Amino acid sequence: MIEGPDFVWLHLPHCRGGVTDAALRTRWGADTRFLFDRVSPANASCHDTIADRQRRDPGFALAGRKLVCNIARLPVWTAERRRWSATVGHLSPVALDHLPPPDAILRRYDTPSVDAWVRAEHLAGDLDAVFGVDPAAADGARAPAPAADAPFTADELEMLYAANPRWSELELRLYGALALPAAYQKVA
């Protein structure tokens, strides 16, 4: 989480938050009006939702500040979450099946409602539009989203979207369609 005088940015995992964090630190890291959580696997607070932060710090208040959060297309997010959980998180395939569904995670971050979304697949333009941050301020801001380790068949994509209507609705609103890069679609 990053707190600024007029915004609070939430770090929804697997949506290029590390690059966003680096860009915002480059821009405002020396300014004491901005509070930056330490980003590390040992510091879960960097992924706080508003409710998490209020439990952790009863003095915290959103107080009229704009709420900003990164987002990625559902299959991109799902593939990255699986890759991370299996490699970095060291979860077995059985444990992966018991992770909270994407809609449950999105509900936690979008409560209260997010005012501005930064799309992982359009990071450079959205960082500029939302924060006025030069995307070149962070290495990787112009790089494409991570490649999928587990592409989906058309049937799997249909099931994924059907099982996560909240994410599907948000993706339609933010991206205009549920179309995906070819790299995430595999032939059945």
How would you sum up this structure, described in words?
The protein has 188 residues and is of the alpha/beta class. The chain has helices at 17-28, 50-56, 74-87, 93-96, 102-109, 123-131, 154-163, 165-175, and strands at residues 2-3, 7-10, 35-36, 66-71, 116-119. The protein has one domain. A 5-stranded mixed β-sheet has the order 3-1-2-4-5. β1 and β2 (7-10) form a beta hairpin.
What is the secondary structure topology, with strand pairs?
Elements: E1 2-3, E2 7-10, H1 17-28, E3 35-36, H2 50-56, E4 66-71, H3 74-87, H4 93-96, H5 102-109, E5 116-119, H6 123-131, H7 154-163, H8 165-175
Parallel strand pairs: 2-4, 4-5
Antiparallel strand pairs: 1-2, 1-3
Key structural traits:
40% helix, globular, 5 strands, 188 residues, 5-stranded mixed beta sheet, alpha/beta
Would you report the number of β strands?
A: 5
Amino- and carboxy-terminal Cα gap: 40 Å
Shape: globular
Secondary-structure element order, as H and E?
Answer: EEHEHEHHHEHHH
* Mean pLDDT reading: 85
* Poorly predicted sequence stretches spanning 5 or more consecutive residues: none
Q: What percent of residues are in strands? A: 5-15%
Number of helices: 8
What is the total number of structural domains?
1
Could you describe the largest sheet, including whether it forms a barrel? Answer: 5 strands, mixed
The assigned structural class equals alpha/beta
